[in-house]
From TrEMBL:
GO terms for molecular function: aminopeptidase activity. Keywords: Hydrolase. One of its GO terms (biological process) is proteolysis. The keyword Transport does not apply. Belongs to the peptidase S33 family. Residues 22-260 form the AB hydrolase-1 domain. This is Proline iminopeptidase. GO terms for cellular component: membrane.
Amino acid sequence: MGKHMTLNGKSIYVKSFGNGDPIVFLHGGPGGSHEFFLPFAESLAADHTVILYDQAGCGMSGAVEGDRYSIQDEVGNLEALRQEMGLERMHLFGESWGSMLALSYAAKHPSHVEKIMLTAAIGLTNEAYAAFKTELLQKLGTFKKMRFMVNGMLHAIGINRTKQILNLLDPYYVYSQETLKKKKHIPYNDVVQSKISKDIEESYNLLPHVKTLSSIPILIAQGSHDILTPFHMERFFKEHLPHVEIVEIGESGHWTVLEQPGEMASVASFFFMNSGESFTIK
């Protein structure tokens, strides 16, 4: 099911299974891996070809010489994957940073995108990304915020503090603390995270492409208790893309596919297999 492909001169690990119209899953991070979507994605394989891959430098994909990681490089890698697999059109499922990648790809290659489903979505601009970080830090409170900043500085000078940082942040990504017991450890590439995060902060802006994006069906399935709530999605999307549908996933934080996999699979199946139907916020 899994193999390495050479895409744009990079070794990219790709896994595919199932039958039917293809859904390409775009993992978060930046710097995460396709494993976040397992076993959730398997539930869609009866009706779709599920395609998972590790973005450049992530998971089992090879590192990029010179640490050249950017939004547009990842857009190019996804387009190379589409061509290599012979896909004329595909559905995209983007989670967190993957939601920004999905929209960035669609803005450049709209003719190859059938539908887009987003979860743990951020927005269309770096303003929304800044709001995500602000909301998260506010949830930490003063003492934990100071610990987070100290660990971040130590990490920046080469002292690995990933475990300590995740221990501080993870509880704010979920609705129920029980979810943390079933969360798989997924190694992150800190270099990828740093490079692409900086690129998002400096250049992420899809407002010039809203006319293009308005031609593509887009559904956002956002956790009721995500750091950016469904009502943030109204603020960051509806003004510019009024056709976007927003579904609230109850009793869920940022990691909807971990906390509510059954509901997410039902929403995804209905959205990808039907046309002309509408969702509304609960």
